[in-house]
């Protein structure tokens, strides 16, 4: 802050508060997303390294005119793309304070460290996951949380086979085998590859017609691998798949994992918080039996990016995987739980917990549960609207807050339908009124709308479908009729 006086900062901070408030106010009235103006894009890409500095208020001018006019779109209530939420205002405010404090939340006796212990416990309580003291850590997202959990699973399995992976690596061991489905998020395969397990040893287990892991097929695959002398060690189940929002049947999966001594990891990145809605909570039964659960406060909770979370049943498995502090040298002043840097990859760690704290504290458990329930109700309503529309087809039951559907005018040829639906998302996006993305489901191109924003209205849902129909008709016409 050498060239910045306290007064300069105060003046600029007030201006920043106005800028950000104006931005958030104006969002719902703007196009959800637009391609960037080529000149504006080029200006950002080719911005020269400045030799001389700008005053703080000059920075705000650039931010306000060159950056904030071109958002991704996810702050808008008519954004239904991927799994990207609008930022919780409380989290936005907290971000400023967190960066002003700028600690490293690796460990020590300062507020951020203790607050992280508390919010990890809150997250576990929200989703009903057991929480031994220290049983979790905030991460950049679920991709990183998955690496942490799967590393702990791998090390436990190897230890049981008489191997210390940290010291000896995996070479020479029979392959460790993991099980997931075709609906499982790609971060699981990335973690498997990175951890040296080999994606060849990640089995794709069949799913039922609802996209849920087929437990009978899982049991068969495990038995076959054991008979072949391999070492089954891990099952990854999903609490809300990205494609259709399906929730796996955790009870029978957990039974099998208990009988076979397999680590059960649940990917709840998007959907774990759905358990807060009493009307769909039943399908989450048994999620609390997992050995680890990865989830993303930066999705359904709206905590500003980035914030994921790894929850583990056996704290020592995680600490034993990452700690480089021999037990006899542990810093007693840090308490029995030690440092967060003993539970994951990051040493210097950002103050993520303040935005999580603010987001949860502002809404309270009941407010959050109401927001989640609103999203699932909106999703079911959207499903009904799709089903009532002769030009649209619902492709999966609405289980959480994702609606998988496609544009399918009567009598259209299946290949044409696929071709149109492949182009539809971008066509809809370019119109600027709503934003939706696509995916492949069993070889079929589809649209998937993800409801994460409690400010979305039923009129927004109707607009989404009207836009899909209009863009679909336009694409059909461009192809020269049906
Ligand atoms: C988003 C998502 C992930 C990846 O999480 P990141 O926070 O993007 O790293 C994994 N699984 C599911 C189901 C997701 O929705």
TrEMBL record:
Q: Does the keyword Lyase apply?
A: yes
Gene Ontology biological-process annotations: amino acid metabolic process; carboxylic acid metabolic process
Instruction: Kindly list the residue ranges recorded as spanning the membrane.
Output: none
Name the UniProt key words of this record, in alphabetical order: Decarboxylase, Lyase, Pyridoxal phosphate
* Record-linked Pfam families: Pyridoxal_deC
Recall the GO molecular function terms of this protein's record: aromatic-L-amino-acid decarboxylase activity; pyridoxal phosphate binding
Required cofactor names: pyridoxal 5'-phosphate
Q: Which residues carry this modification: N6-(pyridoxal phosphate)lysine?
A: 299
As for family, the record states: Belongs to the group II decarboxylase family.
Instruction: Indicate what this protein is called per its UniProt record.
Output: Glutamate/tyrosine decarboxylase-like PLP-dependent enzyme
Q: In which organism is this protein found?
A: Kitasatospora atroaurantiaca
């Amino acid at each position: 802050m050498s060239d910045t006086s306290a007064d300069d900062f105060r003046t600029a901070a007030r201006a920043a508060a106005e800028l950000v408030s104006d931005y958030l106010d104006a969002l719902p009235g703007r196009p959800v997303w637009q391609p960037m103006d080529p000149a504006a894009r080029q200006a950002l890409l080719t911005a020269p390294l400045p030799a001389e500095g700008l005053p703080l208020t000059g920075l705000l001018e650039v931010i306000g005119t060159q950056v904030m006019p071109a958002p991704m779109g996810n702050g808008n209530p008519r954004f239904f793309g991927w799994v990207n939420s609008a930022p919780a205002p409380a989290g936005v405010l907290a971000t400023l304070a967190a960066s002003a404090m700028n600690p490293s939340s690796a460990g020590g006796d300062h507020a951020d460290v203790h607050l992280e212990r508390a919010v990890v416990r809150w997250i576990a309580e929200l989703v009903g996951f057991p929480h031994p003291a220290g049983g979790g850590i905030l991460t950049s997202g679920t991709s990183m949380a998955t690496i942490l959990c799967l590393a702990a699973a791998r090390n436990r399995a190897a230890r049981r086979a008489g191997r210390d992976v940290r010291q000896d690596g995996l070479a020479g061991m029979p392959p460790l085998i993991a099980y997931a489905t075709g609906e499982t998020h790609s971060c699981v395969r990335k973690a498997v590859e990175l951890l040296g397990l080999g994606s060849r040893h990640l089995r794709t287990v069949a799913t039922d017609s609802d996209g849920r892991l087929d437990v009978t097929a899982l049991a068969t695959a495990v038995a076959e691998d054991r008979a072949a002398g391999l070492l089954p060690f891990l099952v990854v189940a999903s609490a809300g798949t990205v494609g259709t929002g399906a929730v796996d049947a955790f009870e029978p999966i957990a039974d099998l994992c208990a009988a076979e001594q397999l680590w059960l990891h649940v990917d709840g990145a998007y959907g774990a918080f759905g358990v807060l809605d009493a009307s769909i909570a039943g399908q989450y039964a048994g999620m609390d039996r997992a050995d680890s659960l990865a989830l993303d406060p930066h999705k359904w909770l709206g905590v500003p990016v980035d914030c994921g979370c790894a929850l583990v049943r056996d704290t020592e498995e995680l600490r034993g995987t990452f700690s480089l502090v021999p037990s006899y040298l542990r810093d007693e002043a840090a308490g029995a739980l030690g440092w967060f840097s003993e539970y994951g990859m990051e040493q210097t760690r950002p103050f993520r917990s303040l935005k999580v704290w603010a987001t949860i504290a502002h809404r309270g458990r009941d407010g959050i549960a109401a927001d989640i329930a609103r999203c699932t109700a909106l999703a079911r309503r959207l499903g009904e609207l799709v089903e009532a529309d002769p030009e649209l087809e619902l492709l999966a039951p609405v289980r959480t807050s994702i609606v998988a559907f496609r544009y399918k005018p009567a009598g259209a040829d299946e290949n044409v339908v696929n071709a149109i639906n492949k182009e539809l998302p971008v066509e809809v996006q370019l119109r600027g009124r709503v934003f939706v993305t696509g995916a492949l489901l069993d070889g079929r191109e589809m649209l998937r709308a993800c409801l994460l924003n409690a400010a979305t209205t039923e009129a927004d849902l109707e607009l989404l479908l009207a836009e899909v129909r209009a863009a679909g008709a336009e694409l059909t016409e461009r192809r020269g009729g049906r």
